Amino acid sequence: MFQNLSDRLQAVFSKLTGRGVLTEADVDAAMREIRMALLEADVNFRTVKEFVARVRERSVGQDVMKSLTPGQMVVKIVLEELTALMGGTESRLVLSGRMPAIVMLVGLQGSGKTTAAAKLARLLQSQGRSPELVACDVYRPAAIDQLEALGAQLSVPVYRGSGTDAVAIAQAGVKDAVARMRDVVIVDTAGRLHVDEEMMAEAAAIRTAIRPDQVLMVVDAMTGQDAVNAADAFAERVDFDGVILTKLDGDARGGAALSIKAVTGRPIKFAGTGEKLDALEPFHPERMAKRILGMGDVVTLVEKAQQVAETADIADLEQRLKAGTFTLDDFLEQLRQVRKMGSLSDILAMVPGAGRLPKDATVDEGALARTEAIIQSMTPKEREKPSIISGSRRERIARGSGQSVYEVNQVLKRFSQMQKMIKQMQAAGGGGKKRRRGMPGLPNPF
Amino acid sequence: MTRPWFRRLGDGLARTRTELRGHLNVLLSRGPDLDARFWEDLEDALLQADMGVTATSEMVDRLRDAAMREALPDARAVLERLGAEIAAEVSVPGDDPFDSGPATVLVVGVNGTGKTTSVGKVAKAAAATGRSVVIGSGDTFRAAAIEQLRVWAERANVPVVERPHGSDPAAVVFDTLTEARSRGADLIIIDTAGRLHTSADLMAELQKVKRIAERESPYPVRVVLVMDATTGQNGLVQAREFDRALGLDGVMLTKLDGTAKGGIVVSVARELAVPIVRIGVGETADDLEPFDSLAFARAIVGPVDT
After folding, report:
1. In chain A, N or C: fewer CB atoms in 10 Å?
2. Is A391's pLDDT higher than 50?
3. B48 contacts A225? CB cut-off 8 A
4. What is the ipTM of this complex?
5. Is the dihedral of CA B172, B173, B176, B178 positive or negative?
6. Which tens digit of pLDDT belongs to each residue from A38-72?
7. CATH 3.40.30.10 for domain A301-427
8. Which domain holds residue B117?
9. How far apart are CA A66 and CA A440, in angstroms?
């Protein structure tokens, strides 16, 4: 359904290869593709119209037409304009110095407010703040229990109040935070439809009563064209400072989010990227623009890799690589590093061009876990020296890991391939002369 | 809070209509001419209803073609045709799994679409018609989902089977069906945890839940997808993936009481041939109604006869 936009544009421009010139008709064909891609990504149709008009204007300009790679130039313009639409640079959460600072969350039903409240508490906690959660959703059955359970997981106090007056609960919650010396209060409110007058008035009343530093609207990344209607109504009735975009871990392109910034001027501040409570990240407009265009997100990928790879380990590994003593234990460590970066499908989503994989190509999330189980079922000696793993040892390992002997063989085969590769790299790195002589043990090609 | 059902349905749809009357006025009020502007505005209206760019282009092309070949005289005639076309696309023949004999129904969907609420509402409606209903609290993941469903079970006055938070949902299904058999229940509704269709593990978990249900249920096992009317183009991918993993027997479209029109179900119904069985039009227990394809089409097109 969502074909990579840059691929599409490439296809449109491919007939120009060698000519290096774009005509207006070519640009128009490209604009049609861009329009399709944006609409498929749920960008608001009015925003799309304005956007396409602006990109077209820039694309038929002199610089592009005369450029050596006009197609690339157009892709670049699209990316720049998309990034600008989403707010240009990262927009941080601004909290005042007052004690406690107050953040209030609003949004439609099912957008993920309660989970977002807990995730935000965890994020602030990790930054050295001491948050308190206030449960003001007095309507949905067990909503307060839900927040309380999440708070308990984080050891963050949750104020639940009593009665059904959400405004009074919010006020009492702030007071409670003062008494407990908490320095930031996160107020979770009930989900409400933007056309529900009574409920919108309630949200506005909570806002007036507690004067939050920041009001954040929680928006589901899968929302369609209606996102703009809802955001408009919330901006007008309650007013909000920014957006938390949730459920970005799926395959939704999240174009609705882009439209909210374009239509209401409120930036996206955070993105929810998983079911676990630490899956809330600051929002980066440029990376999101690439996602909407299906161009991958290498920056995030590299950052994640950096986060998990502890420097000491890497230096150590390098040593062993050089010494040629890369063992199954090292292999296991590598696997664990990869797993720390998140699910394989998440990682894949960030790789440029991954959209070109066959549609039914599924990622086997269990493969890493199974490999890990197999290696863990080996004795330290076996891990050190896989050549001693005989048939009966293989059977024992298979039983121990709950896998077939075939699977065990596969792991050993992959490991020996990896070892070979490392040896080749060693040889290749050994200087020009050595390389010319070819690989040790291989016939000299020259 | 207890208004007659036709009033409530009217209320829910009235808001959708008011919103749509805006488009209609654009489409009808500036004259009956079928000029370039008309077609462009029509396209915008369909896009705004989340019909999606492909379905919209096809629909507009077809109407243009019809307007030419059959000499449709004016904008009103085109809109009438549009209403009929949309109604035809969403009228997929099929039973309502909740209302066609004894059954075990799994209620599935992505996070936050209103599964638990819908289970509560549908259980109450079925119990009110004299059926013996048992519900199973299969969402053992989300904090307090079990408590939420318990409240709904009380409102509906039906038994609910639960296991502690974090239990295997398949075990809940087993317990629920054991309980249902001993009570001689004829409608078993199982709530499940919301999950993104991209999560292979969680989709596999649902397949296991369905396998256990099929093994233990004395009745046919049906699967109903709950979809939020505010969902955009991702809705089609969702439906496709849930259908591929489990085989869908119906779709419930929730939150139609806002300004969202749920146009994505047109693509879902067409591509997957799954009937839309219920719509959620409000927050009270009685705000779940059978799906009416003509009313739905009218909500997207707007009233043409005024």
Report:
1. C
2. yes
3. yes
4. 0.86
5. negative
6. 898 899 999 999 999 998 888 887 667 666 667 77
7. no
8. 103-248
9. 52
CATH architecture of the domain A3-85 equals: Up-down Bundle (1.20)
Q: Could you identify the residue written with the tokens 């639940």?
A: A160
The answer to whether B111 contacts A253, with C-beta atoms less than 8 Å apart, is no
Given a cut of 60, whether residue B287 has pLDDT beyond it is: yes
Pairwise CB contact (< 8 Å): B230 & A193: no
List chain A domain ranges.
3-85, 101-293, 301-427
CB of B133 closer than 8 Å to CB of B156: yes
Cβ separation of B142 and A146 shorter than 8 Å? yes
Residue A326's region, left for phi above 0, alpha for psi from -120 to 50, else beta, is: beta
A381-401 burial by CB neighbour count: b if 16+ within 10 A, else e?
ebbeebeebeeeebebbbeeb
> Does the pLDDT of residue B68 top 50, yes or no?
yes
Considering the domain delimited by A101-293, tell me its CATH architecture: 3-Layer(aba) Sandwich (3.40)
What is the reported pLDDT for A332? 80
SS3 A52: helix
Distance CA B177, CA A290 (A): 48
Q: What is the tens place of the pLDDT at every residue in A197-210? A: 999 999 999 999 99
Least confident segment among A74-78, A163-167, B241-245: A74-78
Residues in A touching B232 (Cβ below 8 Å): 42, 222-225, 227, 252, 255-256
B259 contacts A229? CB cut-off 8 A: yes
A325-A327-A332-A335 Cα dihedral, nearest 10 degrees = 50
Q: Which of residues 244-303 of A touch B (CB under 8 A)?
A: 247, 249-253, 255-256, 275
Comparison of pLDDT for A95 and A119, the residue scoring more? A119
pTM: 0.77
